[in-house]
Amino acid sequence: MAPPLLALQNVSLSFGGAPLLTEASLSVSPGERVALVGRNGSGKSTLLKIAAGIIDFDDGTRFVQPGVTVKYLPQEPDLEGFATTLDYVTKGLGPGQDPYCAPYFLEQLGLTGNENPRELSGGEKRRAALARVLAPEPDVLLLDEPTNHLDLPAIEWLESQLKTTKSALVLISHDRTFLKALSRKTLWLDAGQTRELMRGFEHFEKWRDSVLEEEELARHKLGRKVVAEEHWLRYGVTARRKRNVRRLKQLNQMRAHHSEQRNPRSEININVAAGKQSGMIVIDAKSVSKTIGSRTLVRDFSLRVLRGDRVAIVGPNGAGKTTLINLLIGNLAPDAGEVRLGTNIELALLDQTRSALAPQTSLKDALTGGGKDTVLINGVQKHVIAYMKDFLFTPEQLMTPLIALSGGERARVMLARALALPSNVLVLDEPTNDLDLETLDLLQETIAEYAGTVLAVSHDRDFINRVATITIIAEGEGRWTSYAGGYADMLALRGAGVCAHLKEGETGKIKKLPASQQHQPVPKKQKLSFKEKHALETLPARMVELEARIGHLETRLSEAGFFQKNPDAFTLAGDELARARAEHEKIENQWLELEILREEIEGN
Fold this sequence. Notes:
Layout: E1 6-15, E2 18-28, E3 33-37, H1 44-52, E4 59-64, E5 70-73, H2 85-90, H3 101-108, H4 122-134, E6 140-144, H5 152-164, E7 168-172, H6 176-182, E8 185-190, E9 193-197, H7 204-222, H8 228-260, E10 281-292, E11 295-306, E12 310-314, H9 321-328, E13 336-341, E14 347-350, H10 363-368, E15 374-377, E16 380-383, H11 384-390, H12 407-420, E17 425-429, H13 437-449, E18 453-457, H14 461-467, E19 470-476, E20 479-484, H15 487-494, H16 530-557, H17 562-565, H18 567-603
Parallel strand pairs: 3-7, 3-8, 5-6, 6-7, 12-18, 12-19, 14-17, 17-18
Antiparallel strand pairs: 1-2, 1-4, 8-9, 10-11, 10-13, 15-16, 19-20
Helix pairs in contact: 7-8, 8-13, 16-18
């Protein structure tokens, strides 16, 4: 076996007396692809900085073969002191290296080289930093969250580039698809120590669970007591992953319904959450178009979103994903076409800026709204500390100001706030930014349990595969296409992912669907019968009557002391409410079926 290019042996490091690393080791041989994983705060970034020679350590050894070049990508690149992005990347080249590599990689990553570093967004800084470490083709690449704040085209390009590079890789990433595609060895950092799996990340979670289960068994045999919080942090993830396996099966069943026929006879079980139950049709968009400035971001787009759908919207930065989602939820008026929202819609929005709270707000006040110790979740009061633990915070963080939290922790706070609001439509704009793998598991689990409808903009392919029943992708020139299922389902049907350099007029590069895979229209009736027309005209009025009756009964049943005063009347009212809800559901389904049939006939 070839000697390592870079190695750390039994490295230890403490900050303020608290040990972060105790016996951490890392070995990188030529051509190796290593995934460095561990829960948030375990010291992954610190270990990578030690490997890069950026920070010192208390004990242990670091070895780099003479002549070996090592390049490190930090989470927050510093471009200070450089006039342009080209200047920044060129200064990263070694003696005798081809200077053409700098503009080439900048172009591939969507930059011209003339950008002023002081005016770059976070994503643009990340692209420039990637060009700087890739251009020299070093012997060892140390990449800390390389996909953070990149869009899908850039992620797919980077993935293909790293697959062909001769450099050895050490990767820290929350992107499961990225890690699975690139890693051949996994290094798990836990409790200050590292453990090595000589297989890629695809096999890591199952192996980690077995290791933790063996440790738990040994703990019981030895009769040692583990601190409750540590036990929850380390072992709780195992149970979460197993629950996700079951929910993934449920998701696949939902997708099967969508693939066959999305109609009101779907047998998906949808329970009432904290918000009122929405109507069967949540969003009905017809031939919607929107132009901002000189760019048409949405062109002649139609979509019907039914209650319980999980819709993912994907595409390059600037394609109009946020514009499309704002059109669909009624926050933005279309230039042409029509968007109709269903009845009883209650929205909860998590935007990508995470800017809704003052930095000095405490974690407790951020979650409760201030002055309270409980949070109302699905109609039940929950103590704020219990709710904090749901989102992987410890009781000691109760009064911590938001400014002291990491980017991932602040993202969790905003997620917790959004999910605590009474809603039946959850809108998530870039929800996976700054989230670690465990928090992503939590988000996916929460969405799986959510009783309403979900609209999400995301660049995380694994997240989309785990939650989406519909995927909408930008085709270029304002055109959008929807596919049943997640990202992998879309890829199988479309024949291509999000094109890395999709420009005006370049949509022809996308592989056309074969005729056998295109959605062929089923022969439809030529016209509605008299009975169907009459039902289509009269059912809405009946639904309004039932909604009024349901509202009256709900108000009556919620009156204080009603049950104690007259138990029999309370029971009768409850039975009547159940009958009214069942009749409303039946009539709504009947009307929806007829409405779909009418539109299909008129569209022929």
